[in-house]
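Figure S7 source data.
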Amino acid sequence: MTQRILAYGRLNDDQLAKLRRDFHVDYFAHLDSPDEPAFRAALREAHGLVGASLKITPALLDEAPQLRAIASISVGYDNYPVDELTRRGILLCNTPDVLTETTADTGFLLILAAARRAVELAEFIRQGDWRSSIGEAHFGSDVHGKTLGMIGFGRIGAAVARRGALGFGMRVLYSNASPKPALENELGATRCELDELLSQADVICVTVPLTPATEKLIGRREFGLMKPSAVFVNIARGKVVNETAMIQALKSRQIQAAGLDVFEQEPLPSESPLPFMTNVVALPHIGSATHETRTAMAQRALDNIRLALEGERPIDLVNDEAWSPA
Ligand code: DGY
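Tokens for the predicted (2R)-2,3-dihydroxypropanoic acid complex:
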């Protein structure tokens, strides 16, 4: 029997054609809502799911009685009920590694843009306000030679720190559940408590995954510990930060600036003040969004789903407990 895959992420023609050689594929290039009848119908028959940015709930899983594996086109898997998937014996795969460098580039883009006020000053020109040589009122802060505080020191955190230490001569502090001795050697990084990092770092960059333990990790108290000159960058998940507290800290200039690729609610609601604040650089969750990397992520997800449905162990299995070799 030909197995059925329901794909709702962006796949290119070549990837789709290859997948269709071996599987029946129901493909939704744009999915506005998982309630679409055609999507629900395909879900009922699907053995595998491939996609991104869709919240998978236990109720949705009830609609997918044949489902054996999900390959998310993302490294983060906070959209999936991992324990519930494991209980049902459904494999969950993600796409680490292939997006590390691109996402770290986004982190550094935000660090530089926020510290040097790049978006605010580009807008200043666009408005026709550049009439004489700019003065102190428009100066930014240096990044090179400063202290970079990494909250989370996994693959992406390490790649941001590498750019800081080796490219910009920054001292690196990190807070992480476990020590990373190899990275300490490579980058001269020092592990410290979160409070110490917050009070010492000039640039603070969040890269922890969203879990119950990291939800609202950075709130009013934590913004209060930061230097008034601090630049705060979040490329992880919006819910790691208490957004109301962050807006307050930015409005009152308790901290200097923020560079944000992620938000509590995405897409950002139109009433959010964040994109309009001059000391904020806000991007629409572009962490891994380059042609090369999104193609590589989709390919990795396809490799994972193919292996899973062929009874082989996928490359990037999130829930090991669900794996039982034939
Ligand atoms: C991920 O893969 O989790 C990223 O946030 C998507 O850009």
